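Notebook entry, cofactor series.
This is the third protein in the set we're modelling with a bound small molecule. For this one the ligand is magnesium ion. I'm keeping the input format identical across the series so the outputs can be compared line by line later. Sequence and SMILES below, as received.
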Amino acid sequence: MTGATRPGALRAEDCLPFGATGAASCVLNDPALNPLRIIEVRSVSWSEISEALPQVTLGNQNAFLGRRPGIAQPVLICDNAESDAEGDAMERAVHAAGLTKRYGDFVAVKGIDFDVPFGICFGILGPNGAGKTTTIRMITCRFPPDGGTLHVLGLDVRTHGRRIKERFGLVPQENNLDEDLSLLENLELYGRYFGMAGKEARRKAVALLEFMQLAEKAREPVKALSGGMKRRAMIARALINDPELLILDEPTTGLDPQARVLLWDRLRDLKDRGVTLLLTTHYMDEAERLCDELVIMHEGAIIDRDTPRRLVDRHVGRWAAEIELTAAPDPKAVAAQLPSSLRRWELVGRILHLFADDQSVLAEAVQRFPHTAQHIRPANLEDVFLVRTGREITE
Ligand SMILES: Nc1ncnc2c1ncn2[C@@H]1O[C@H](COP(=O)(O)OP(=O)(O)O)[C@@H](O)[C@H]1O
Ligand SMILES: [Mg+2]
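Returned structure with ligand:
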């Protein structure tokens, strides 16, 4: 590994590559070099990195963003492969670099970079208006990007839309089944659209409705089904062409808890069968339960990325307290009373959020503030969003 053997510069230890596909990689682990500024993948050239980090001798290397455990700041992860954007794209289900979309003057997606490795469930988490659906529309070749590059299943969306469409399945944000047709008819029609013969389409439709636990409803008109059933039917339909990549835009929005659990179970099953899943959601619990890796999107930009567990550990620690203060709080007075062993704190209106690795620190801290209610619980992705943006994700 070039540079990795140079003492104090690059070493292979502590390496937690983000989205790595098993390639040898190493992390800059000289404490003097932390925190490092974020260097976007698309803009990285080794001369730029050398400028940013003059202490590091760099070979002929690629770079991508990664995280080092226990260090809040982004670090740069390097490997010693030749720079080869096409090669990168081939190894990933989705490869986006500098991806941009405008609606008139409004920039809905602001030059985002991300990679979806094959075989995992990848999440785009963000509140309404973050740019999730716009990103999905570019990935599914509904409209081309206004800037940057985007490869899906190794193919460029600008030139290979038709071939890409044959190989993914899409569950859009809004259900668009034909309400007057039966479930079976809906799926058969879709199969015919992909060029299947009638018999083949029927066989596939029956098997998929079985898989999505809808066999009993196969002959019912769609309009007679519950919201959860319609959503599962959308997934069944999206699977008719045996996609390698299943893309789901807010798969469970508006569903009741039971319907969500059933749908999650089917998605896990699909992943076990080797289907790569890419989903958007504004539900933290959904991201936490399903996603192996995720990006957090906010106002058109990606503000963080990692596994759910590492995001929580990195930003807030293990425990969270929510304290509803009795009086309108003065932030300065609050700050003066906080214990020093807190990881973070955040004041949103009258609710004081405290974060710590140790539950007893929070229990003690709660006593310092006159309150009408308090709640101590394990920290979650909702907290990560809060500390990254100062806002809550749910509307
Ligand atoms: N067709 C459109 N024309 C103009 N603005 C749009 C259009 N579609 C989405 N937007 C705006 O772009 C932003 C991102 O929207 P969207 O991608 O739907 O976000 P999300 O799916 O995360 O809720 C929002 O501010 C939305 O109002
Ligand atoms: Mg959306």
